[in-house]
């Protein structure tokens, strides 16, 4: 399971260091793609296969299903970690997420999310304001 929040910076080649606590579960090779809320999603190969299978089951006759799968898969790239734990984030994905230099990497259960620090801070402030309200609506068990 992925969890935690980590601050990093892109190097001059567009690479980011994956936090050591996330590396083993992500694996040497993993898939990174457009996420929601202007971040990137990174999945270990096994989880990516599971998601791919679920998306294959969506009805291709539905416009929303076609649009989502097109964007999700067209933005996907398999990346490989180097010996220092760095991965190159493709330019198109850096542009999508607004990543220029400072990066926040968070663990979210079955995936890792990569955010522009600026976008993450804005999102986090807005989400914090409604955290309790959302929890009340969605969580039906005691934390």
Explain how this protein is built.
- The chain has helices spanning 20-26, 45-56, 63-74, 91-97, 117-129, 131-138, and strands at 2-9, 15-17, 29-34, 40-44, 77-80, 86-88, 102-109, 111-116.
- With 143 residues, the chain is α+β, with helices and mostly antiparallel strands.
- It has a single domain (2-138), classed as Chemotaxis protein chec (3-Layer(aba) Sandwich), CATH 3.40.1550.20.
- The strands form two sheets. A six-stranded antiparallel sheet has the order 1-7-8-4-3-5, with helices on both faces.
- A hairpin with a 1-residue loop joins strand 7 and strand 8 (111-116).
- 24% of the residues are buried.
- The mean pLDDT is 93.
What is CATH's topology name?
Answer: Chemotaxis protein chec
Instruction: Give the ordered list of helices and strands.
Output: EEHEEHHEEHEEHH
Q: Which parts are unreliable, with pLDDT below 50 for 5 consecutive residues or more?
A: none
Rg (C-alpha, Å): 16 Å
What integer is the average pLDDT?
93
Structural category? alpha+beta
Instruction: Report the sheet with the most strands, covering strand number, pairing sense and barrel closure.
Output: 6 strands, antiparallel
What is the CATH superfamily?
A: Transcriptional regulator MraZ domain
Beta strand count = 8
- The largest sheet has its strands arranged as 1-7-8-4-3-5
Q: Could you say how many structural domains there are in total?
A: 1
